[in-house]
Write a structure and sequence with these properties.
single chain; alpha/beta; 3 domains; about 45% helix; about 20% strand; elongated
C-alpha cells in the first residue's frame, strides 16, 4: 500500500478501493465536529474543499456517510462504524507525525473556555506561570452546553465543563469537585440562628433568594440533596455571575447557594456565614474537555497538564 493510502474497513468487510488518508482525516474531523464548517476550521481548509472530499469519500465507499441537517450533519450508521475503525489508527499516526507547523514556529494561542467565575478566580491564576513562559491564552466564558458545541466545531481547544459531555466525539477527564454551601450575611444568620438545621427550608421562607438564573439550578440541587424536597419559590435577585450573587448576599440582600471555592475567603473573614453544614453536602464534578486526537499546538498540552496539576490543590 503506497504512501497516503489505506484500506477502509466498512460494514465488517474490506473495501477494494484504496482511500486517501486525507479523506479519512477530513471524515473524522466532520464526524467529531458535527459539521463541514467545523471540520474546515479544525483542518485549516475551506468548506467547499471539505464538502468535495466527503462527496469523494461517499463515492469511493458507495455509502452515505452524513445526513445533512439544518445545522450541521449527523453521522449515518455507516459513518459510526467507519469512525470506530479509523479513529485510533489516525490519531496514532497524527501523534507520530507531530505538529503540522514548522519546528521552532511560535505556537498559536490556546483557546480556553468555561464558567466565568472559575476561570477568573482559580484557573487564570494557576496558568499565570505559563503565560510568563510565553504561552498565549484566548479565554471565553459561558455555559457548558454551548461551549461544548463550540469545542466540537473547533472554536476552542479546551473547555472546563460543569457536566460530562455525552457521546464519543469529546474526551473528558475529571478536574475538580465543587461543594455547594448555603450562605447568608451575618445579619441574616443572626436572625435565623439554628432554625435552618431544625426547621429545614421553612426557616428561609421570608429570606430573599439571590441566584444567577431564573430556574435556580444550584439551589434546586441543594434542596433535593440536603432537604429531600423540591424548591418552590422565585428569586428576589438574579445575577448571571456568581461573583455578583456573592456581592449581593454579603451586602445583606438575602441568601444563596454557591460553590465553596468561591466563598471560602468570605466565610473565613466572617463576611458570610454558612447556614448549614450537612454531613453530605451536594457536590458537582467539573471536567476538562478536549477533542480527541493529537494536538497540533504543544501549548494546549502544557495548559492541560498545568490545570490537572493545579486542580489537586483546589
Amino acid at each position: 500500500m503506497g504512501p497516503g493510502k489505506c484500506r477502509a474497513v466498512i460494514l465488517g468487510r474490506v473495501e477494494t478501493a484504496s482511500l486517501d488518508l486525507n479523506l479519512l482525516r477530513t471524515f473524522l474531523a466532520v464526524y467529531r465536529s458535527g459539521s463541514f464548517t467545523g471540520a474546515a476550521r479544525l483542518l485549516g481548509l475551506s468548506q467547499p474543499t471539505v464538502t468535495a472530499q466527503m462527496r469523494a469519500l461517499e463515492r469511493l465507499t458507495g455509502r452515505e456517510l452524513f445526513e445533512r441537517l439544518p445545522r450541521g450533519v449527523a453521522p449515518t450508521p455507516v459513518a459510526e462504524e467507519l469512525a470506530a475503525r479509523v479513529a485510533d489508527p489516525l490519531d496514532e499516526l497524527s501523534a507520530v507525525a507531530g505538529p503540522a507547523s514548522p519546528g521552532g514556529a511560535r505556537a498559536e494561542p490556546v483557546h480556553l473556555a468555561g464558567p466565568a467565575e472559575l476561570l477568573c478566580t482559580t484557573v487564570l491564576p494557576a496558568l499565570a506561570p505559563l503565560v510568563g513562559e510565553g504561552v498565549r491564552l484566548r479565554v471565553v466564558t459561558g455555559l457548558t452546553d454551548p461551549l461544548l458545541e463550540e469545542l466540537r466545531a473547533g472554536r476552542h481547544d479546551l473547555v472546563i465543563a460543569t457536566s460530562r459531555p455525552r457521546g464519543r466525539t469529546l474526551q473528558a477527564v475529571a478536574l475538580m469537585d465543587e461543594e455547594f454551601v448555603l450562605v447568608a450575611a451575618p445579619v441574616w444568620a443572626g436572625r435565623l440562628a439554628d432554625r435552618p438545621a431544625v426547621e429545614g427550608p421553612a426557616a428561609l421562607h421570608d429570606v430573599p433568594l439571590i441566584t444567577y438564573a431564573e430556574d435556580l439550578p444550584i439551589a434546586r440541587r441543594y434542596w433535593r440533596h440536603v432537604f429531600g424536597r423540591r424548591l418552590s419559590r422565585t428569586a428576589a435577585v438574579t445575577v448571571p455571575d456568581l461573583r455578583g450573587v456573592l456581592a449581593a448576599v454579603a451586602a445583606g440582600a438575602g441568601f444563596s447557594v454557591v460553590p465553596r471555592y468561591l466563598c471560602q475567603g468570605l466565610l473565613e473573614s466572617g463576611a458570610l456565614v454558612a447556614l448549614l453544614e450537612p454531613e453530605d453536602p451536594p457536590i458537582n464534578t467539573g471536567f476538562l474537555v478536549q477533542r480527541p486526537g493529537a494536538l497540533d499546538n504543544p501549548d494546549v498540552a502544557r495548559v492541560r497538564a498545568r490545570l490537572l496539576e493545579a486542580a489537586r490543590t483546589w
